[in-house]
From TrEMBL:
InterPro entries: Glyco_trans_9, TPR-like_helical_dom_sf, TPR_rpt, Ycf3/AcsC/BcsC/TPR_MFPF
SMART domains referenced in this protein's UniProt entry, alphabetically: TPR
UniProt repeat feature TPR, residue ranges: 37-70, 71-104, 174-207, 208-241, 249-282
PROSITE patterns in the record: TPR, TPR_REGION
Name of the protein in question: Tetratricopeptide repeat protein
Domain of life: Bacteria
Database matches in Pfam families: Glyco_transf_9, TPR_11, TPR_16
Keywords: Repeat, TPR repeat
Keyword Nuclease: no
Length: 598
């Protein structure tokens, strides 16, 4: 995001008053004291590109003094102030920019982010995002943010109706057709989704984004040959685009991400390398290369490339004064804070390293998501566990949990895989034992979807109705461990007879752990519950998409991170049917239905 924004704000814009010289006039280079507003803005852009926010702000302010109506200078100053955490000043600058240039979608986008991130004003933020989408076709980043925050407010239907109305007034809006198709896809209205994508392609036949979306829906409909054709064309267009624009980093990045969707990892790494040759500071490409390297088992390269994973944090990267520790200094007799910088599952996965750090003679503190605090308190020999709002103790070093594997130069052979390393509280285990005592074995927990706001959710989550053959055979009892149930799943869930919904009673991960301790098996998609069951040492079967997350590696049914895990992989994109058939067969073998005696 930051790279994208920097590129956005470093475009050259001439102020209205600037009069170009005629070719016959000699070129006059003004001394620094006489720089015009355009030159000062350009200097500010250069400072911004190098990350020198203070110097950039100075240049933009000078440009505004010369030309108070220089909208782009106001807008760029607003961005810099956002980066400096000066929200009120940033908002004033951005609003001034918007008053001068009311049709600037980029300024609307920044104001939307500022409203939400600085004061949690979802309503105002969404209004700005909507305006940005109205003003700029294909402003995907603004649309995705708008959709995300409207969904959080339960207003996704309003987004849908906005798109429908927009298409009715302007049928040539291929971007709206594409956005609407994705909503229909999420709602499992596949015919409507395909119709939207095909309408978009009728307008823009060579739109690779739409072709990818169409291919995904075709795979969901088991139309494999047509789906492959759509992806093949999208790939050809991406490759052609990079040939025509060899220095366009965004084109190379889109090609790399499509190659990852297709599990063509070495080609994706080559694309990331091309980006980094052109711009070594392109953080997204280095992160992409690192995660791909981890996925194919090249850990040494992968951990180094993902060292700055915290910049993509789900929780945020606090700016501690204490030095970063990567096993590069003696911490015997010192104290260290390990802090969660990614999602819940990542925290559970990497907190295992606390024990190894403890053995180096340090006091070890952990700061994590509040919902994990009670659970992580069961970690052996931990000196303190703190939630996001807790006051921290004094400490000498810090390390984000995403970096601890790098600190120990972790390889496939040296992954600390002793389980369980987390425990469920005995009194809660006893409580749930009494609650579940009337249910015969096997007791099986189910999680079928994750956070809908997760960027790759459409690939990893399953709609509950897809599990019908598994859940409705009447021979086993299942316990739903899903904290939140999507509106699309609720009617089907209500019709299930041999299922108990425990979600409303699971107020944190410690409670979920106590339930899992009383189960024989957990079946889950790639969510935090997969990590929780694995860390507890319980049998867990994990459903993986065709292009899996880095931690699950490739071509294996076991996990070196979790010895009790079994992996079930999609053989093709969106093919959950094969996965579920395999799970049903393995259930029949390992947990055969007991014939009742008459």
């Amino acid at each position: 995001m930051l790279n994208w924004l920097k590129q956005l704000f470093t475009s050259v814009e001439k102020p209205k008053e600037q009069v170009p010289q005629t070719p016959s006039q000699p070129v006059y280079v003004a001394p620094p004291a006489m720089l015009g507003s355009a030159e000062l803005k350009k200097q500010g852009d250069d400072h911004l590109a190098r990350g020198d926010m203070a110097s950039a702000a100075t240049c933009y302010r000078k440009a505004i003094v010369i030309d108070p109506d220089f909208a782009k200078a106001h807008s760029n100053l607003g961005f810099v102030l956002m980066q400096q955490g000066r929200a009120d000043e940033a908002e004033r600058s951005l609003k001034q920019a918007l008053a001068l240039d009311p049709k600037n979608a980029d300024t609307c986008f920044m104001l939307g982010n500022l409203a939400i991130l600085s004061r949690s004003d979802l309503e105002s933020g969404c209004q700005y995002f909507q305006k940005a989408v109205e003003l700029m076709p294909d402003f995907d980043v603004a649309y995705l943010d708008w959709r995300r925050y409207m969904s959080l407010q339960g207003k996704l239907e309003q987004v849908k109706q906005f798109l429908i109305a927009g298409i009715a007034s302007d049928p040539a809006r291929a971007d709206f057709q594409n956005y609407l198709g994705n909503i229909y896809q999420d709602e499992q209205q596949f015919e409507q989704a395909m119709a939207c994508f095909q309408q978009a392609l009728a307008i823009r036949p060579d739109d690779a984004d739409v072709l990818e979306n169409l291919g995904f829906v075709l795979f969901k409909q088991n139309q494999v040959s047509q789906a492959n054709a759509a992806y093949d064309k999208a790939l050809a267009l991406r490759q052609q685009a990079t040939v025509l624009g060899p220095d366009d980093l965004d084109l190379h990045y889109k090609l790399a991400t499509l190659l990852l969707v297709l599990n063509r990892h070495q080609e994706a790494i080559a694309s990331f390398n091309q980006i980094l040759t052109l711009n070594p500071g392109y953080v997204e490409a280095r992160l992409g290369r690192g995660l791909t390297s981890l996925l194919i088992g090249e850990f040494e390269t992968g951990w180094k490339d993902t060292r700055d994973l915290a910049s993509y944090a789900a929780v945020g990267y606090p700016e501690f004064r204490q030095p970063l520790w990567l096993n590069d200094s003696d911490i015997n007799g010192k104290s260290i804070l390990l802090f969660a910088d990614q999602g819940l599952g990542d925290t559970i996965q990497f907190v295992r390293y606390a024990e190894q750090i403890k053995k180096l003679g340090a006091k070890v503190y952990v700061r994590a998501h509040t919902s994990l605090k009670s659970l992580l308190g069961t970690l052996a020999d931990l000196d303190g566990i703190f939630g996001e709002e807790d006051i921290l103790p004094l400490f000498d070093y810090c390390c984000p949990l995403s970096n601890v594997a790098l600190a120990f130069n972790t390889s496939l052979e040296t992954i600390p895989a002793s389980v369980p390393y987390l425990q469920a509280a005995k009194e809660r285990v006893a409580y749930w034992e009494s609650q579940l005592s009337s249910f015969q074995a096997p007791r099986i927990g189910i999680v079928w979807s994750g956070n809908p706001l997760f960027r790759n959710d459409k690939n990893r989550s399953v709609h509950l109705q897809r599990l019908a053959a598994l859940l409705m055979d009447g021979s086993r009892h299942f316990f739903l461990l899903q904290k939140e149930v999507r509106a699309l799943d609720a009617p089907f869930m209500a019709s299930l007879k041999n299922v108990t919904d425990l979600g409303p009673q699971l107020n944190d991960f410690a409670e979920t752990a106590a339930v899992i301790a009383n189960l024989d098996l957990v079946i889950t998609v790639d969510t935090s519950v997969a990590h929780l069951a694995g860390a507890l040492g319980k049998p867990v079967w994990i459903l993986l998409p065709f292009a899996p997350d880095f931690r699950w590696l490739l071509g294996r049914s076991d996990s070196p991170w979790y010895p009790t895990a079994r992996l079930f992989r999609q053989p093709t994109i969106a093919n959950w049917d094969t996965v579920l058939d395999e799970i049903k067969r393995d259930l029949d073998v390992e947990f055969p239905v007991q014939e009742s005696s008459t």
